[in-house]
Amino acid sequence: MDFENLILEYHDHIALLKINRPKALNALNGETLKELSQAFALIADDTNIRVVLLTGSGEKAFVAGADIAQMSSMNSQQARRFSQLGHNVMNQIENLPQPVIAAVNGFALGGGTELAMSCDLRLASEKAKFGQPEVTLGLLAGFGGTQRLARLVGGGRASEILFTGDMIDAQEAYRIGLVNRVYSQDELMNEAMKLAQKISSRAPLGVQLSKTAIQRGQNMDIVTGQDYEAEVFGQLFSTQDQKEGCSAFLEKRQAIFQGH
Ligand code: CAA
Description:
Layout: E1 6-11, E2 14-19, H1 30-44, E3 51-56, E4 61-63, H2 68-71, H3 76-95, E5 100-104, E6 107-109, H4 111-118, E7 121-125, E8 129-131, H5 145-153, H6 155-164, E9 168-169, H7 170-175, E10 181-183, H8 185-201, H9 204-217, H10 222-236, H11 240-250
Parallel strand pairs: 2-3, 3-5, 4-6, 5-7, 6-8, 7-10
Antiparallel strand pairs: 1-2, 8-9
Bound molecules: acetoacetyl-coenzyme A (CAA).
């Protein structure tokens, strides 16, 4: 499928998805959000893909936010639909079977921080900047930022970021737990690819069901979450990969997983 604002490449079991709107620092307009939704639907159906790497094209921005030019003339109803479109895409990423790694290569502001937060893991270049500057525009975070940021970094830190609109750098994002790791700009994509390769060498269904258990567990009490965990733990015992993984350990050899 050809996209206007995205580049989708395949590297063995890894899908590399780049947001590619350099003239607007990869800002998310309605068209780009719809293309993201199409791309993730394709990936969800592709059993060969085990991990997704999401980044922004160019050196300057991951995503500089929702498209301000497009939002500037929206009425309330259009803005509500735009927010819902953003939510649908972010939820689609959270509900995708495969894990998604955000490689944050520059500005991740507003919808950019929100997009990164919907991914399972966040790696940042030392040049990355995060923030929710919506209040400087007379708006508020509309793609899930008020919800996911507080869950990730706690209410107090989320309030500071959302109320001031100030940017934070990659080291501060690391300190507060918003990103998993920070690399130099030159190393970022190599390191992100290495992590994607490592995850894609693990039993795919074990990884996918771990993601589902983590995601669902956030909205469950711990006992219900553990019931779900026991259920999917049991499910894995009817897979070939469980037999292969345990046998390989006992036979002191490397396991080769097939994803079934
Ligand atoms: N929407 C639309 N266009 C954008 C954009 C955005 N979010 N961010 C940058 N651009 C465009 C600029 O308008 C500019 O276009 P022109 O060359 O045609 O003038 C181009 O990208 C380059 O940007 P700058 O010249 O501003 O680059 P800079 O290096 O001086 O500054 C920046 C970089 C600090 C990221 C600055 O562009 C900026 O502050 N961008 C806006 C960030 C922002 O406020 N994001 C939140 C949007 S609201 C939101 O996301 C709501 C939500 O949750 C749903």
